[in-house]
UniProtKB/TrEMBL annotation:
This is SsrA-binding protein. Pfam families: SmpB. Belongs to the SmpB family. It comes from the Bacteria. It comes from Luteimicrobium xylanilyticum. Required for rescue of stalled ribosomes mediated by trans-translation. Binds to transfer-messenger RNA (tmRNA), required for stable association of tmRNA with ribosomes. tmRNA and SmpB together mimic tRNA shape, replacing the anticodon stem-loop with SmpB. tmRNA is encoded by the ssrA gene; the 2 termini fold to resemble tRNA(Ala) and it encodes a 'tag peptide', a short internal open reading frame. During trans-translation Ala-aminoacylated tmRNA acts like a tRNA, entering the A-site of stalled ribosomes, displacing the stalled mRNA.
Length: 156
């Protein structure tokens, strides 16, 4: 009998889609200690400053904040430690090759539990310039105004 079914989101990096152009998305497992899993199940984590590095053929999630477990003892984890990501060799090689290009980086988008297992959604991304951010915001506002006008037109 399965414990948890479905996708239970723990943390999202909402600013990532504003600051970066997302080019490719991957799902990866995370190597966690017991107190980290318990802290995540309480729904506390922050992906804001997080990034992924590929080092010696392994992917590492760095600078992601998972607070210490409140009922933990001396076995508690460090809040901002490096965490290994579980990806296929071909995915790691592709990420490593693409990040060598100028302006490419790997960022975490979402941290969640999928059928009881901790997963992280990472994205291969390129940083946006300030004028790109303004243009995206302007396009979103124009679309909202158009939708509003269409609704108003249907009502009259």
């Amino acid at each position: 009998m399965p414990k948890d079914t479905g996708r239970q989101v723990v943390a999202s990096n909402r600013k990532a889609r504003h600051d970066y152009v997302i080019e490719d998305v991957f799902e990866a497992g995370i190597v966690l200690s017991g107190t980290e899993v318990k802290a995540l199940r309480q729904g506390r984590a922050s992906l804001v400053d997080g990034f992924v590095l590929v080092d010696r053929g392994e992917a590492w999630l760095e600078n992601v904040y998972v607070p210490e477990y409140s009922q933990g003892t001396w076995t508690n984890h460090a809040p901002r430690r490096k965490r290994k990501l579980l990806l296929h060799r071909s995915e790691i090689d592709r990420l490593e090759a693409r990040t060598r290009e100028k302006g490419q980086t790997i960022i975490p988008l979402q941290l969640y539990f999928l059928d009881g297992r901790a997963k992280v959604e990472i994205a291969l991304a390129r940083g946006k310039r300030e004028y790109d951010k303004r243009q995206t915001l302007r396009e979103r506002q124009d679309n909202m105004e158009a939708q509003r006008a269409m609704r108003h037109r249907e009502l009259t």
